[in-house]
């Protein structure tokens, strides 16, 4: 067997051809990356997804798939969707807090103006 | 001779797509009704039926519908954005969150400055910071956010919420 097989071909126990679609993105030094992606998506699906993308986008696609696969392994029920939901809730709370703070500023400005008018008179 | 087994008319969406008999113990049937074939098609395209089956078998039964919902969401987003999938959405939301935190820090600094000058000009009146003031309620409707956005390079305050670094910025 070719000792320079990529992590995917090592995992799948097959020969790693020169034009292997996985080898640029799954170096043998990081076997867990492919193992995680394969567990969630399957090698066949990942291969199809990569084939449908232009070459220059494939590295980013692999990184995003890897991140989502890790999230799904850590949280099998919600995966990375849990993070989206949490962020959306936090954003709503923060927007409310911002609105309140800005309203307090407006109240303070109004009171300050009134005080100045009273002092003038 | 063993004939072709007819598919049940009550096959779930998964078994219909996979062209197999839908058994009473089918793991997909409670979550992929035959009336919605598209959802399973998307999930199958991204994750594969056997991976989904494994995932579902690894979670308690009462959490399987939530699992299917999140898988369907992820699959849908991945099909719309094959490069970034949900990560694109996460990165956008994190950026929005950071902007809001910055805006709050700026607004709070302004409020503190007002409080400080207010202490000098009136009878040490401490401004209410909370919700139930009728003045505040009136202003919540009138003050547009954009009026008070200031460009300010000062650091974020304790409102920073630790959500981890986005993989893509």
From TrEMBL, chain A:
Keywords associated with the record: Coiled coil
Coiled coil among keywords: yes
Taxon lineage: Eukaryota, Viridiplantae, Streptophyta, Embryophyta, Tracheophyta
Domain LOB: 4-105
Source species: Eruca vesicaria subsp. sativa
Assigned protein family: Belongs to the LOB domain-containing protein family.
Descriptive protein name: LOB domain-containing protein
InterPro entries: LOB (IPR004883)
Coiled coil, from the record: 84-111
Pfam families: LOB
Automatic annotation (TrEMBL), chain B:
Matches recorded under InterPro entries: LOB
Pfam family, one: LOB
Domain LOB: 10-111
Origin superkingdom: Eukaryota
Family named by the database record: Belongs to the LOB domain-containing protein family.
PANTHER family reported in the protein's UniProt record: LOB DOMAIN-CONTAINING PROTEIN 21 (PTHR31301:SF24), LOB DOMAIN-CONTAINING PROTEIN 4-RELATED (PTHR31301)
Full protein name: LOB domain-containing protein
